[in-house]
Structures are given as C-alpha cells and as structure tokens.
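Here is one chain, start to finish.
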Amino acid sequence: MSSTIWSVDEHLEDILAAVKPLEPIELQLPEAQGCVLVEDVVVEVALPPFDNSSMDGYAVRVADVEGATEEFPAVLTVIGDVAAGDDGLGAGRRVGPGEAARIMTGAPLPEGAEAVVPVEWTDGGTGEGPAAAMRAHSDAPEGAGGEVRVHRPAEARAHVRDRGSDVRPGDLALEAGTVIGPPQIGLLAAIGRSTVRVRPRPRVVVLSTGSELVQPGGELAAGRIYDSNSFALTAAARDAGAIAYRVGAVADDAETLRSTIEDQLIRADIVVTTGGVSVGAYDVVKEALSSVGDEDEPGAGVDFRKLAMQPGKPQGFGSIGPDHTPLLALPGNPVSSYVSFELFVRPAIRALMGLPPVDRPTVKAVLVTDKALSSPAGKRQFLRGTYDAEAGTVTPVGGSGSHLIAALARADALIVLREDVTSAEPGTDTEVVLLR
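Its structure:
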C-alpha cells in the first residue's frame, strides 16, 4: 500500500490515463442502444421518400375547392382510394378537374392533386350523384364512385408532407459521439440503416467482499449485515451506460476472491470491488489482487492508496490479468462506496465509451443550513445534499457518517468542500456535484 497521500484529482487522472476507449464494432440496431456512434451517419434516402398525406381525407385540386362553404360546398367525383403502401391511383390515373381521390394518412399524394382536405371538412363522401354508376363499371378503380361535398377551401400543399421535408439525401443524420437511444434508432431505421458502427457499452463486473455480508432476503444472523453495495453499484454502472454484472458477496478469503475475479475476467472490461481496502482489512484483498490472472504480465497489479478525501480515503486501482483489465477497489462503507463510484468509476465507464465529459456536471449553489459545515483541513469532503435548481440552493441531507445510506437515498447532489475549506457558513456559495 502506497504511503503517499493522493489527491482526488491525481487519483482520477491516473485512472483516466490507463483507461482507453473500447474498439469500435458494427452492431445491428437493437444491439446498438446505449452505444456511442464513432462515425457520422449521412442520409442516403429522402425522408419522407415521397409526398404523402398527413390526414385521412380527400386529395383534391386547389381550384376545385376554392370558395367552398357549408352552404355552397364543392361537389367532386370520387375516382378511387389511395391507401398507405399504394403507389398512387395506378398507372395513367390522376386527379383531374372536378375530381377527388379518397386518401389515407401516409398514402402517396396522387398525380394531379395539390392538397388534402381532411374528412372532417366533407360530408364523408356519402353522396350518390351521377358518378355512382362507376361502381358498376368493370374497369373502375377500387373506391371509385359517388361524390364528396367539401365545405372548406384548401391552400396548395395543405396537409401534405413534402418529400424530403424531414431529411434529404446528403444531410447529416447523426454525428459521431451521439449516444444511440430510441429516437436515434428510429431515425436510423427510417433512413434504411440496419447496422451502425459504435463503441460497445462497457461490461462492468461488481462484487462485494466481506464475510459479514448476507444477500437481501436471507436470514440476518447476529453480526451480519445485508449486502447493499453490490446492488447499488451495479445499478450505478447501468445508469452510467454500462452492461453490469453483479457477483454475490465474496468471503474474506484470498483464494476464493482470486478465483472469483479470475472467473469474471472473460466478461469484464472493468472490475469494481467494494470492501476490504481499509487499514487492517485490506491485506486479504491485496494478496488476492496482486496475483489475479497472469502473474507474469508486466505492469499488472493493483496499488492501494490513501486519498485526501472524506468519505473514501482508502482506494485501490490497477490492472489485472493478461488483458490488463482495469480494477477499482472501493471502500466498503455504503456512502464511501457510492461517492467513490461517482468520482472514479463513472468517469472510467464514460472514458471506455469515448464520451466527454466524463464527470458529473457541477454548479454553484447557496448553502442552506442552520449551522456552518466543518471539514478537515487538507481533505476534500463530499456531503450529501438536495439541490433546488429554481432557487439555486443546496441543503445538506443527513450527517457526515459514511454508513448513513438512508440520507444518500434522499440526496440528489454532493456538496463539495475543497481542501482549503474548513468551514462553510450558511449562505455561502458552494460547489455542488449533480447526481440526477
């Protein structure tokens, strides 16, 4: 264990210097969700690919409905139907003077038509005028026959979605660096892309250490506690964008811990342990991690450190196994563990994804508290708080104890008291890390 006291910034810099973005791969759209694009996506087909109706109604010529009113409707002959998926009225068919085509939402605008009047502006096409004879004609197109009375005029292109009105060929659809979510997958599919080149989501293996740990739902004997850290950190890893695997709590046995981690390396881009890194308890973890995977691999190993921070003073970082898989060893106290994840593991996950910035956003907020907050000189303290964006204030939640997980569950921010701050008075402008 290093005797040097590391700063928070030095420890994070060391981690980020060792963590490189994952190599890009080509993925099918469903598998690309949550991944980061590594190339610009350019549109190859117009969207929409043809002029189409945005309403159920009738495709008409503007001149034929000019001046139409309830009292004096325009009476048009219905020459056919155009449904979504059709290519129009058919070869050689077009909407001519005094004619209309019944059209459905998304259907292509037929030749000759200039606008669409919604069905609500008509009598619904129930008229039985002279064109009714068309129904009996063997060559009449589907839907032909009858008349429709239009009660309102329509301007040119009314209720028509123009070809390319969303995107045109050559347009930039998505930039490199975009995180692929549901809307992006929808756009990619709409422009005909079935695969996309991305950095994959990092695979994070999370495990707790400690013989005192019991899985939730189990019997809690004297001296035992439930394992909360592995659940919280697995959820935090997923929230950061990773694919996370939770391993059940491992007893304080070097051989068991070593074999468990070795078994997990095949599915890990990063390993996170929690517990067993403080003075008097870290020896078993250190012994296990010093020989995980290929012991002859130069440069591998985990360095256990003391950081000038509270909570979270004891930390471990290094690489293990033949692939030099990064490993971060976090403290076991729940608040220390979670704060350490936010400060060090989350940035590492985002670095693997190739996502800047890696840190949570920070803001300045006015401290709302009954009494001054104290902080040890030379240490960076992180206190739980609730942030009011509208008021620009932050209020401490719970005490400074690193075991107070209930307060952590109510917090949405970390109040930062830097190394040169020993007291923060009510009303002070304070640095705040936003967790939501």
